[in-house]
Design brief:
With 257 residues, the chain is an alpha/beta fold. It contains 9 helices and 12 strands. It has helices at residues 43-50, 82-89, 107-117, 123-136, 152-165, 185-197, 209-215, 233-238, 243-256, and strands at 3-14, 17-28, 32-36, 58-63, 66-67, 70-73, 76-79, 92-95, 170-174, 202-205, 218-223, 226-231. The strands form 3 sheets. The chain has a 6-stranded mixed sheet with strand order 8-9-10-3-11-12, sandwiched between helices. A 4-stranded antiparallel sheet has the order 2-1-4-5, covered by helices on one side.
Length: 257
């Protein structure tokens, strides 16, 4: 299958700390890939580089055949302007750990804002689109509620609706349930599961190992800035080849049993 996302020899350093040490990864259109691994392994940094929230130190990222963050000119490669970068980011949805909703806007207006400002959609159409996306995530009855009146799970579902309203080519999820109380995790995972079943292209950084096994086409295990192992969920999660993967999974699964 043709790759929708292609990551080539990706490196990222913060000062003298090298966080990503040469990551190569491809995702096909419609593929759901979960990225697991210990804290500090580079998972979130990898996602943030794909969306160019972090500028890679070295390497290339391509989305649907387009190099992200840089453009070829007659004089060679140049960095994109902020406006050009905003247009590229519109194709790459990002769901954060913390919901990043505007507290002074209703759920509907939080979802409608980006389609209006980035896509140039008119106010009535944006409101209709927001209503549709909020209904899709089970919040059709909360259109006019403000974030402070929503539970954490509801706020995260508004954040997912906001991403869906932009109709991105890929959705990146950065531990979307880590800020939630345990009883609210299921409602967010249910929405994500439905999106995977629709055939959305998704990269999910998660500590929900069983969910990753259920919903993913492929699981990637990272450690110390590198991909250690990847493959079908049954293979990686139940019969991992690498000792580091086995050690990590044993600790995580023992903790959740």
């Amino acid at each position: 299958m043709t790759s929708l996302i292609r990551i080539v020899d990706l490196h990222k350093s913060f000062g003298t700390l090298e966080v990503l040490k040469g990551v190569d990864l491809e995702l096909a259109k419609g593929e759901c890939v979960s990225i697991i691994g210990p804290s500090g392994s580079g998972k979130t940094t990898l996602l943030r580089c794909v969306n160019f929230l972090e500028r890679p130190t070295r390497g290339e990222i391509w989305v649907d055949g387009q190099r992200i963050g840089r453009k070829e000119t007659s004089g060679g490669l140049r960095d994109l302007s902020d406006r050009e970068m905003a247009r590229e980011r519109a194709e790459i949805g990002f769901v954060f750990q913390r919901f990043n909703l505007f507290p002074h806007l209703s759920a509907r207006d939080n979802v409608a804002l980006a389609p209006r400002r980035v896509r140039g959609i008119g106010r009535p159409e944006a409101r209709d689109l927001a209503d549709e996306m909020l209904r899709k995530v089970g919040l059709g009855h909360k259109l006019e509620e403000y974030p402070e009146r929503l539970s954490g799970g509801q706020q995260q579902r508004v954040a997912i609706a906001r991403v869906l309203a932009m109709q991105p080519k890929v959705i990146l999820f950065d531990e979307p349930t880590s800020a939630l109380d345990p009883e609210l995790v299921g409602e967010v995972l249910s929405v994500m599961r439905a999106l995977a079943e629709e055939g959305r292209t998704m990269m999910i950084v998660t500590h929900e190992i069983r969910f990753a096994g259920d919903v993913s086409d492929r699981v990637v295990f990272m450690d110390e800035g590198r991909i250690v192992e990847q493959g079908p969920p049954l293979e990686v999660l139940r019969q991992p080849k690498h000792e580091r993967t086995r050690s990590f999974l044993k600790k995580i699964l023992d903790r959740t049993d």
